[in-house]
Design a protein that fits this description.
single chain, 422 residues, alpha/beta, Rossmann fold, Tyrosyl-Transfer RNA Synthetase, Structural Genomics Hypothetical 15.5 Kd Protein In mrcA-pckA Intergenic Region, Chain A, 3 domains, six-stranded mixed beta sheet, 11 strands
């Protein structure tokens, strides 16, 4: 289905115009030449993803949408999984060094992250997705030869002007030589992909601009050929926060780490001011339909939020999970009941009979981070059991709270769990 769509549409859609209209475009090198290239030729392009966790989170979704959109136009996406550069850590946009992972953990992450891309990209046809791992060429690199052959193409003067470095230095924050090498390796990645896959374009976030420029210039100097770079804007919420960059409660793109319902609920809870922007960025609804929803106001905007949740969940987890999440939401919120597909925490009957601490269970399921946090939430009337406010008198779960061996617990209006007695 995806490749058929590519063949039908590839000659009628202007890539850069689409990127600008949908909000994917921030800046690029030699825009006129890149526009002509994408209009006349089907190219290979790449985006790199470091493998610091077993899954990507929603903060990477904009890059994934870029891969998907260009593939649908007939271009070939190359997904670079940074098994090599993850050993170092990208300083771009960071205020401190990343935790260094061992090779076994990184390799597990590489394998796990591939599952995410399979939901968005086609592995069929002439422009099927290509996966590469920069560990293949970085791991056994001879550093003396590397410095001799490529070090002369990089100046410290220029590298110090890049935002990824300059901001850290301006704030007098530590920037190790280990991280400083990262931008050189990323440029080398682009050159290697240009050699092995005729890759002509690298796409990355706006904080990657300096790194991408390094790669474009390295290819020009070593190969006497033209390559291009394009960056996407930093996506923030209406409150100014980075999207998907929370330290706790990350919105993972892996159903084993975050349930489809919780993913659906994340999008359903989008701020009114962000929903139309997110419809353009993270769905494939046409402009006319999005424009129709942009005219909604007041409580009607909830229709757009439900549409956003349905479309994003369908793209990642499939139509069935999207519809199931919608029904769960209706039962849980609209009907004040519960759906048996909500996240479940199981307690053995023998343990339940002895008395199970509500506080300990709530900490275990993430409703509180500590005893103190639990107490603060309790004092603010944030907890409910079967839609009845929890009080200090309620220390353990009771038999009369069960309905068919199930107790529904809630944290605020948006987080719900089922306690199941087995």
């Amino acid at each position: 289905m995806l490749i058929k769509y590519c063949i039908q549409k590839k000659m009628t859609v202007n890539a850069l115009n689409l990127f600008k209209n949908r909000g994917y475009f921030f800046q690029c090198t030699n825009e006129e030449a890149l526009n002509n290239l994408l209009s006349k030729k089907k190219i290979k392009f790449y985006i790199g993803f470091d493998c610091t966790a077993p899954s990507l989170h929603v903060g990477s979704l904009l890059q994934i949408m870029c891969l998907r959109q260009l593939q649908k136009m007939g271009h070939t996406p190359v997904v670079l999984l940074g098994g090599g550069t993850t050993l170092i850590g990208d300083p771009s946009g960071k205020e401190e060094s990343r935790k260094i992972l061992d090779e076994n953990e990184i390799e597990k992450n590489v394998i796990s992250i591939k599952k995410v891309f399979s939901q968005f990209l086609s592995d069929q046809g002439d422009n099927k997705v290509v996966y590469v791992n920069n560990k293949d060429w970085l791991k056994d690199l001879n550093y003396i030869e590397f410095l001799r052959d490529f070090g002369k193409h990089f100046t410290i003067n220029k590298m110090l002007t890049f935002d990824s470095v300059k901001l850290r230095l301006d704030r007098e924050q530590s920037l190790s030589f280990l991280e400083f090498n990262y931008m050189i390796f990323q440029a080398y990645d682009f050159m290697k992909l240009h050699e092995s896959h005729d890759c002509l374009l690298q796409i990355g976030g706006s904080d990657q601009w300096g790194n991408i420029i390094n790669g474009v210039e390295l290819i020009r100097r070593t190969k006497s050929k033209e390559a291009y770079g394009l960056t996407t804007p930093l996506i923030t919420t209406s409150s100014g926060q980075k999207m998907g960059k929370t330290e706790k409660g990350a919105i993972w793109l892996d159903g084993d780490l975050l349930s489809p319902f919780d993913y659906w609920q994340f999008w359903r809870n989008t701020d009114d001011k962000d929903v139309i922007k997110y419809l353009r960025l993270f769905t494939e609804l046409n402009d006319d339909e999005i424009e129709k929803y942009s005219k909604l106001s007041g409580s009607e905007i909830n229709e757009a939020k439900i549409l956003l949740a349905n479309e994003t969940t369908k793209m990642l987890h499939g139509k069935e999970e999207s519809e199931k999440s919608l029904e769960m939401s209706k039962k849980t919120f609209d009907e004040k009941g519960f759906d048996e597909n909500l996240p479940t925490y199981e307690i053995k009957q023998s343990e339940f009979d002895k008395g199970v601490s509500i506080r300990e269970v709530f900490i275990e399921i993430g409703f509180a981070s500590s005893k103190g946090d639990f107490k603060r939430n309790l004092d603010n009337s944030a907890y409910k059991i079967n839609n009845i406010a929890l009080t200090e008198k309620d220390e353990v779960f009771l038999k009369d709270q069960m309905d068919k061996n199930i107790i529904k617990v809630s944290f605020g209006k948006k987080k719900h769990y089922l306690i199941k007695i087995i």
